[in-house]
Specification:
The complex is a heterodimer of chains A (345) and B (84).
Chain A lengths: L1 E5 L4 H12 L3 E8 L4 H8 L14 H9 L3 E5 L1 H9 L13 H19 L3 E3 L13 H10 L6 E2 L11 H4 L17 H9 L18 H14 L6 H7 L3 E6 L2 E5 L3 H9 L6 E4 L7 E4 L4 H13 L9 E7 L2 E7 L4 H7 L2
Helix pairs in contact in A: 5-6
Chain B lengths: L8 E4 L7 H10 L7 E6 L4 H12 L2 E8 L3 E7 L6
Parallel strand pairs in B: 1-2
Antiparallel strand pairs in B: 2-4, 3-4
The chains are: A alpha/beta (345), B alpha+beta (84).
C-alpha cells in the first residue's frame, strides 16, 4: 500500500507517517507552502542573525522527510491559496482570519490530485479528533473528508479508532488495530509516541505558527482588504503585513515602520517605487509608504518616523523622505503617543 | 579527464531562500541521469540543513559543501535512481 501524507514537519504528521511505515506502508509526503507560515517568514527575515545557526532556519518538512527517509514534495500554492481560501472561505473564519476548514479542504483536494499521479491509494494527515476548535472536531473532520472528494481514502492514523474505517482498513490492507485512538487537546499520547520512536527533535505544536490565526496579522489583513477591495490584494502585499508597525493615514495611504534593523532592511530592499522615510541621522526605524501622500500626508509620515526614533524627546527632528531619486527633508515635532496609537492598525 | 565527482551541472541560487534553492535543485535533477553530480551555489545558511535532509529524504547522495568567501556555500549531491 502506498500513502501520501500532508507533512507539516510538526510532530503529529511525523508520527502518523511512522505509524504507517511501521506496518509496511510506503509513505510519501507533500508540504504546501501557502505564504502564511511564521517559520518561513522568519527564515526570510532573520537570515543574517542566524548565520552559523542553520538549524534555526531549516525547513521542518524536509527535516521530517529526512527522518522518515521518505520523499517530501514541496508545492508552492501561495497565489491560489490567497484567492480561493483566505479571501473567499466558504466555511468562514475562526477567531482571527483563519479559514481552517477551507484550508484543509484545499490542501486535501490538492493532495488527492497528487496521490493520483503518484499511485497512492490513501491520503493521510496527522489530525487528531477534538484537538483544534475549528477544524478538528468530529463534524468538521467528516465535512472535510466529504468536500475534499477523499471519502473512504482519507486516513488519520493518530485517531483512526474513533473514525469510520477507510477502504484500505476495511479490506485489511492497512491494519486498523495498529492505528491509534487519540483524541482531545492533551499532547501526552503524542509525546509518549515520540519517545517510543526516538523522535527527539520536533518544532512546537502547530497552530501558533500560522499568521492567519494571529489577531494582529488578521487586523492588518482586514484593513488592507477594506482599503483596496479583495480583488486587488496579492501575494506580494501579504509579505508586508508580516513586517513592522502599520499606520493607516487615510484611504490608499499607509506607512509601515520597521520595528528593528532586520525589518528596516527588509523594507528598504523592497522600497523601489515607494516613498521611504527615516530620521536624517538614521537613528530610527525606516518606513515604507503605500500610496501617494500630499503635503499633510508627508508631514504625518515624518512625525511618525520621528516618534519611532532615538530623537523622540526632541522638539523638532529632521526626517528624510525619498522616492526614486527625489528627496525631501522635513523638520517636524515627533508624533505624540495618543495620535500615533490612533493611526496604528 | 574529469574526476568522477566533478559536477555535471551547476545552479546558482544566491539571493533565494530555502526552500526555493531546494525546489530549483529538484527541478534540475530531473534533467540529470543517476550517478551525475549537481553543484548548488547558495548564500542561505539553511541550505546546510535543508540539502542533506532533501538528499536523505529522496535517496540522493549528499557529497558535502565548501564554504566560499562572503558567507556562501557550494553544496554537491549525486543523483540516484531511487525517487524522482
Amino acid at each position: 500500500v502506498k500513502a501520501l501524507g500532508l507533512l507539516s514537519g510538526g510532530l503529529d504528521s511525523t508520527l502518523a507517517a511512522r505509524l504507517l511505515q511501521e506496518q509496511g506502508v510506503e509513505v510519501e509526503g507533500v508540504h504546501f507552502s501557502t505564504g502564511f507560515c511564521k517559520v518561513d517568514h522568519r527564515r526570510a527575515l532573520a537570515r543574517p542573525r542566524d548565520l552559523g545557526e542553520p538549524r534555526r532556519v531549516r525547513h521542518e518538512a524536509l527535516r521530517a522527510g529526512s527522518d522518515l527517509e521518505a520523499p517530501v514534495e514541496i508545492v508552492d500554492v501561495a497565489e491560489e491559496f490567497l484567492r480561493e481560501v483566505v479571501l473567499r472561505p466558504k466555511h468562514g473564519y475562526g477567531s482571527a482570519m483563519n479559514p481552517c476548514v477551507d484550508c484543509r479542504i484545499f490542501m486535501l483536494k490538492k493532495a488527492a490530485e497528487l496521490a493520483g499521479e503518484r499511485g497512492a491509494e490513501v491520503v493521510f494527515t496527522g489530525e487528531v479528533v477534538g484537538q483544534r476548535p475549528m477544524s478538528q472536531y468530529r463534524a468538521a473532520l467528516d465535512l472535510i473528508e466529504d468536500e475534499s472528494g477523499l471519502s473512504g481514502r482519507l486516513l488519520r492514523p493518530l485517531c483512526a479508532q474513533h473514525l469510520e474505517p477507510t477502504e484500505a482498513e476495511r479490506t485489511g490492507r492497512i491494519d486498523r488495530s495498529r492505528l491509534e485512538g487519540i483524541n482531545g487537546r492533551s499532547r501526552r499520547d503524542q509525546i509518549a509516541m515520540a519517545k517510543r520512536y526516538e523522535i527527539a527533535e520536533f518544532p512546537a505544536p502547530s497552530g501558533g505558527c500560522c499568521y492567519l490565526a494571529d489577531p494582529n496579522f488578521a487586523r492588518r489583513l482586514r484593513d488592507l482588504v477594506t482599503d483596496r477591495g479583495r480583488d486587488a490584494v496579492g501575494v506580494e502585499d501579504i509579505l508586508f503585513l508580516k513586517v513592522g508597525r502599520h499606520f493607516r493615514l487615510g484611504p490608499g495611504l499607509k506607512l509601515i515602520l520597521g520595528r528593528d534593523e532586520p525589518e528596516s532592511r527588509f523594507l528598504e530592499e523592497r522600497s523601489e517605487g515607494h516613498w521611504t522615510c527615516r530620521v536624517a541621522d538614521r537613528r530610527g526605524a525606516l518606513g515604507r509608504v503605500d500610496g501617494n501622500p500630499d503635503r499633510d500626508g508627508m508631514e504625518s509620515i515624518a512625525r511618525l518616523a520621528a516618534r519611532y526614533s532615538a530623537r523622540r524627546q526632541e522638539p523638532a527632528v529632521e526626517v528624510l523622505l525619498w522616492k526614486d531619486g527625489d528627496e525631501i527633508a522635513l523638520a517636524v515635532p515627533p508624533a505624540d503617543d495618543r495620535w500615533a496609537r490612533s493611526m496604528l492598525v | 579527464m574529469p574526476e568522477p565527482m566533478d559536477p555535471t551541472a551547476r545552479i546558482d541560487t544566491r539571493g533565494l531562500y530555502c526552500p526555493v534553492p531546494i525546489l530549483r535543485t529538484r527541478d534540475r535533477l530531473r534533467w540529470l541521469d543517476p550517478g551525475e553530480v549537481l553543484e548548488v551555489f547558495s548564500d542561505d545558511p539553511a541550505i546546510l540543513e535543508d540539502m542533506p535532509a532533501f538528499c536523505r529524504s529522496h535517496g540522493h547522495h549528499y557529497l558535502g559543501h565548501v564554504e566560499e568567501a562572503g558567507k556562501a556555500w557550494r553544496v554537491r549531491l549525486q543523483k540516484t535512481g531511487k525517487h524522482r
